[in-house]
Amino acid sequence: MMKNSTHKKFEVLPPTHPVIRACREGDEAAVRDYLEKGGNPWAISARDDVSLVSLACGRGHTNLLELFLEFGIDPNQPIGTADRHLIHNAAANGNIDQVSLLLGRGADPNLGDTWGFTALHDCGEHPNIVRVLLEGGADPLVRQRQGVNPLHYAAARGSAESMALLVEAGVPINIPLKNGTTPLHKAAAAGRRDACAWLLEHGADPTIVNDFRRTAAEDARICNHLEVAELIEAFASRK
């Protein structure tokens, strides 16, 4: 049965508190005992400067996440600085079990942090997470304050599979930042040769110049990725 937590204020626990070790080690019995005795599920570890549930999730203990949810943790409440949420961290860590559990318990996949980044921004190198988030209602066209779309991150991290999922979901392959930088620029600057090749093969325009007056090939050269620059230039010359 779902328990409703009446704790509304964060409580800082000393480093020696036994529940902190229990969260690190995934000791479900000890954490349950703490919660059943009225322990604050929103408590923060003084040593780690994160909430108990964040500590447990960061160690991969999905069983403890389920337990905290049972005891009233709201999956849509920020868990720390910058308005980050549990689903942000689970996505960034590539933990599909936690992402699926959170979505199943009502987590909003479109929650943004202080800068407007969503969970979909955080999982560019994890196509399985991208797929689950999209199936769970994540907006593929989301853009944060500077216009960053998840496709920019997937390109920078070199995941063709993630890029394919996002483009299939409707993201324009040349979607720009506010400064005109495209996913191809991002992949080029990061030296992601295969990602650049995929983008070019699927319609990326190598002639686009951003507000810094640079093409993607020029970004690659500035970052000393000469093979990437040559790949893009060779493709552009054939157009």
Describe the structure.
This protein has three domains: 1-73, Serine Threonine Protein Phosphatase 5, Tetratricopeptide repeat (Alpha Horseshoe), CATH 1.25.40; 76-139, Alpha Horseshoe (Serine Threonine Protein Phosphatase 5, Tetratricopeptide repeat); 147-239, Serine Threonine Protein Phosphatase 5, Tetratricopeptide repeat. It has helices at residues 18-25, 28-36, 52-58, 62-70, 86-92, 96-104, 119-122, 127-135, 150-157, 160-168, 183-189, 193-201, 216-222, 226-237; strands at 12-13, 44-45, 50-51. Helix 9 packs antiparallel against helix 10. The N and C termini lie far apart (63 Å). Helices cover 48% and strands 3% of the residues. It is mainly alpha-helical. A three-stranded mixed sheet has the order 1-2-3. It is built from 14 helices and three strands. The chain is elongated.
Summarize this entry quickly.
This protein is mainly alpha-helical and 239 residues long. The chain has 14 helices and 3 strands. The chain has a 3-stranded mixed β-sheet.
CATH topology assignment of the largest domain: Serine Threonine Protein Phosphatase 5, Tetratricopeptide repeat
Strand content: under 5%
Give the terminus-to-terminus CA distance.
63 Å
Which CATH class of the largest domain is shown? Mainly Alpha
What would the principal axes of the Cα set say about the shape? elongated
Please give the domain count.
3
Order of strands in the sheet with the most strands?
Answer: 1-2-3
Order of helices and strands: EHHEEHHHHHHHHHHHH
Share in helix: 40-55%
